[in-house]
Amino acid sequence: MAADLRRVFGDRFIALVAGGEGAAAAFARGIRSDDLDAMGALADTWHGDGVATPLLMTIDEFARSLDTFPAEFQALIDHHVLIDGDNPLASARVGVDDLRRACEAQARGHLIHLRQGWIDGSGHDHGLAHLIEQSAMPLRRVLTNLARLSGQTPDGDTTLAAFAERQAGLPASLVTAILALDNGSPASRHTGSRALVPRLGEYLAASERLWAYIDAWRAK
Description:
Elements: H1 2-9, E1 13-18, E2 24-28, H2 33-48, E3 55-57, H3 59-65, H4 70-79, E4 81-85, H5 96-121, H6 125-149, H7 157-168, H8 172-179, H9 186-196, H10 200-215
Parallel strand pairs: 2-3
Antiparallel strand pairs: 1-2, 1-4
Helix pairs in contact: 1-2, 5-6, 5-10, 6-9, 7-8
């Protein structure tokens, strides 16, 4: 992809960076309609190689969007790998207030999604287990951003769960079990999520506490 982008943009190419969860971002000095046509002709080849179409931005667009997509761009900053070019993320910073608002929105959305999913599950264990499994990644995101707001960088699920218990009163054992659903084989995720169905009420209460904590959070 980097070689393709260099051919498309020529001396306007700045960088290609890979992020977490299969994401990528490409940066160029100016983006024209013919650039998009050229990239469109390459997209099927990228997808065939398991590479997603990258976000495409100028440096100015990225800098001016940090307050609009703080959580998404913070994740990119935290987990990116420079593939080619001059790294535009090396000195990028997301504002604390912007990240707090994004973190609150994530926590609020997480809670509302759990409530809605519980209703839609209609008491069927299969549906409720799927709800819990699908909630693991969003929970990881909001806890990771909360840790960043608090100036901490937990190095694994156990320490992230301990942080959540210490800071917001979430049960560490429950958080650890849910975060584990974000990894492992499909079979282990299925087994683990079904085992957590009886704790869904506890999970909902913990998510309510998490939202309330972030809503009241203030920088120290």
